[in-house]
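Fold these two proteins, one after the other.
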Amino acid sequence: QVQLVESGGGLVQAGGSLRLSCAASGIFFSGNAMGWYRQTPGKQRELVASITRGGSTNYTDSVKGRFTISRDNAKNTVYLQMNSLKPEDTAVYLCYIPPIFWGQGTQVTVSS
């Protein structure tokens, strides 16, 4: 049974930082690409960042230069370091392993 458990969300002021973690179990972690999505009410789920098996990364334009995705295969964990946070980054952040595995999400709230 595949499980993805996110942690690290919270309330932060604009300009602050948070580090999200997603611990995976029940899956061959190092053999999979992984991604972080975010969801806000009334909007489509958005891919924020992704990382391949080999460590190549990709980011949506709005977070480039501020967010960094990384992975630790020894710990079966993927991270999202978020710096210079903005109120528009407020969302539920979800971990994803293609094609069908999702975490439960962690809330990030950025106050102005």
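Now the second one:
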Amino acid sequence: VQLVESGGGLVQAGGSLRLSCATSGFRFNDYTIGWFRQAPGKEREGISCIGNSDGDRYYADSVQGRFTISSDNAKTTTYLQMDRLQPDDTAVYYCAADAVGYVCADYIEGYYDMDYWGKGTLVTVSS
């Protein structure tokens, strides 16, 4: 199982980035994919999730209305479109995958953890 994040970088406040999570080694259509982030000195935060089998989506309040999650099953890749970025969005962003199939809200709110994780991509938003 492999998850590889890409698309991070430096952007000015108000700008946009699209993160990609390229996956391999598992049945992508059967898995739930989540995006998480960890800022320096802070705990990891769940921000968005998509159930590839049922289309379930969930966003943390901190990103609702600014971030959009999607999956391309043919490419076994999940994306996170991030708009109206703010300095508080600066963090290392990780994607993760799980086969159990809990509702997305439960993963993002921290009730359940995901089994497989990427190594992360750094997003820096300057003011």
